[in-house]
Amino acid sequence: xxxxxxxxxxxxxxxxxxxxxxxxxxxxxxxxxxxxxxxxxxxxxxxxxxxxxxxxxxxxxxxxxxxxxxxxxxxxxxxxxxxxxxxxxxxxxxxxxxxxxxxxxxxxxxxxxxxxxxxxxxxxxxxxxxxxxxxxxxxxxxxxxxxxxxxxxxxxxxxxxxxxxxxxxxxxxxxxxxxxxxxxxxxxxxxxxxxxxxx
Length: 199
What we know:
globular
């Protein structure tokens, strides 16, 4: 199913429809401030396993989308210096690696104790997480030789509509991924330079 949701003023009715899919162990494709991404509830073991199959067996780690810094602090261990850095750069096109707290479901983490944290500068994923009441596991729609299959929601639906329950059309996406920053060491380390420039 392909559903149009406008970024500027997301429809509560359509957000509720997408959240109902997530609550039933479904997978949605949604826009971010970088590339389009797959998402499912961190509480859904079944959806997480399906997401691993879609992304391929070698891809077993996911990032996690939060709606706020307060929610990040619930699920991750964040010290004062890390919090200040997050506050300066989020929402934005970043994935910050942080140590997980005991609140993060083990099944969501696999064998890892670190989480790639996202708060996209796009109201649609933040609205989904807020209404869902828990974070979403997420993984980018794969790179493709034909970039339209990463950026055009209708073509994304054509390719992944059978493997997911819902594709959200939030307009044209981008091809450049997030900037990945490791905050688990003494000093922040940029592991991948993407759209975001660290402040």
